[in-house]
UniProtKB/TrEMBL annotation:
Protein localization: Cytoplasm
Gene name, Swiss-Prot/TrEMBL: gltX
Lyase among keywords: no
One GO-annotated biological process of the protein: amide biosynthetic process
Domain of life where this protein originates: Archaea
Entry-linked InterPro entries: Gln/Glu-tRNA_Ligase, Glu-tRNA-synth_arc/euk, Glu/Gln-tRNA-synth, Glu/Gln-tRNA-synth_Ib_cat-dom, Glu/Gln-tRNA-synth_Ib_codon-bd, Rbsml_bL25/Gln-tRNA_synth_N, Ribosomal_bL25/Gln-tRNA_synth, Rossmann-like_a/b/a_fold
Pfam families: tRNA-synt_1c, tRNA-synt_1c_C
Keyword tags: Aminoacyl-tRNA synthetase, ATP-binding, Cytoplasm, Ligase, Nucleotide-binding, Protein biosynthesis
Reactions catalysed: tRNA(Glu) + L-glutamate + ATP = L-glutamyl-tRNA(Glu) + AMP + diphosphate
Name used for this protein in its record: Glutamate--tRNA ligase
EC number: 6.1.1.17
Enzyme class: ligase
Amino acid sequence: MDDELRERVEREAEKHALLNAVKHDSDADVGAIMGPLMGENPEFRQHGGEIPGLIGPVVAEVNQLSAGEKRDRLEELAPEELAEMEAEDEEDDSLLPDLPNVEDYDEVRMRAAPNPNGPWHLGHARMPAVIGTYKDMYDGSFIVRFDDTDPETKRPDLSAYDAILEDIDYLGFDPDDVIRASDRVETYYDHARELIEMGGAYTCSCSGEEFSNLKNNAKPCPHRDKDPETTLEEFEDMVAGEYTSGEMVLRVKTDIEHKNPALRDWVAFRMIDTPHPRPEAEDYRAWPMLDFQSGVDDHLTGVTHIIRGIDLQDSAKRQRFVYDYFGWDYPEVIHWGHVQVDEYDVKMSTSSIKELIDAGELDGWDDPRVPTIKSLRRRGIRGQAIVDAMVGLGTSTSNVDLSMSSIYANNRDLVDDETDRYFLVRDGREFAVEGGPDVAHPPLHPSFEERGTRDIPVGDSVLLESGDVPAEGERVWLKGFGAVRREDDTLVATGDDLDVVREGDVAVIHWAPADGVSVRMRTMDGDVLGVAEPDFGDVPVGELVQFERVGFVRVDTTDHDETLVYFAHK
């Protein structure tokens, strides 16, 4: 590589390092700028092996600047790109389309209707994120209704009710009303009785196979034309628990020749022998199916707009039969596709996660390997970071992919300014230190000098990460301490000033005293052991910090022997 090309590489690297640093209000990262650098300058690719070593010192020099100096330098080098980036930041972050026909309603009222069969996985966060955002957009109401009328197939978990409400609070929303459907069974019975009296429902004792054959051939059930009085009498026997599971159902009378067999005389109530886990509901045996229960509740609670999965389009069609019988207006409906999340090996399914936990393959709902809201919370991810990512997906009917990197980027923007910096050495190699200061004083945050510095006593020896160990006779710059040269198993202070870093001759690395704080860092790939600087031992539980060159972590527990932290992201 000739001198002219070298200068071009360094100039472009400085620009991209500044763009990266200013955008995220943090130190630039060599790995993060390699892609944009090579993409804009394809002629650099033939020198790909040399580029990282060449731009590393440039990035290190950029990272020595204050936040204001970085912006000023970027404005000097690339004013148009800076202006474009700042304009994007000022744009409205909301990517949600307007709700349909809002002018027809006095108030926008929307509901999230979780099944409380376990804590929420990450995909569940989309509904409250979007509904909560719409509530703010329209000054509307946000209802949480627990659809818990299936005590057998999707059996409620008593701990999940509060866990889900805690997740909604963590995401930043406060529901205007919280309803448990299992508290409202008598209301569903009353509406079933009205429907029967209208001639809109009938009791059926056909086996599932018998009715399926009739339905698929557009043939009426032999019980379809029984009089309302008989139907009502048999329904009261259902309510009294006179039938066993599978013996009797109540069907909504629709169109037995409807082109969609799924809409033909669908089940509104069935018998379930398994008692509900809530004491308040354990005596009921005749339970409404979701389409009946949900349709009645949406009307009675004044829901104006429903968001549901594209795979549930038949639900609206079924419920419209009930609405037509009662003369109700059906809410506006938005259908959307499913969310797929990358990075996890564990399936995003409540039942699958529960099986793995019960089998002892996962430590719990907040295991870092699990795609749950509890897990991200324990790792130190802000709820707002999840909400912003979910809202950014919009309400498309297509299935959408959510990259965890977008949540991490959002979280980095939220927490970077307030998180203090510390050193953590993993897989450390010990070296004696000769010369230099007895105590190093790196800043608590490179962008906020007013926060002060932390004190790191050097002691008799320090630890370096194995990848940072210099070759015999080479120099490195220990952050906060200064330049040292390796001589066998000793690091000898050289007295060089920062110019050796600016000139690109010396790499900047972190370190820790050999007698520092023992740390266990829990990650998605397993536990990582390391040693942190002594001041880290005073960080309170629950605090988020950044281990320099490692990433953001949340302090989980501390004891005399070890501090446990959960890794959030780089």
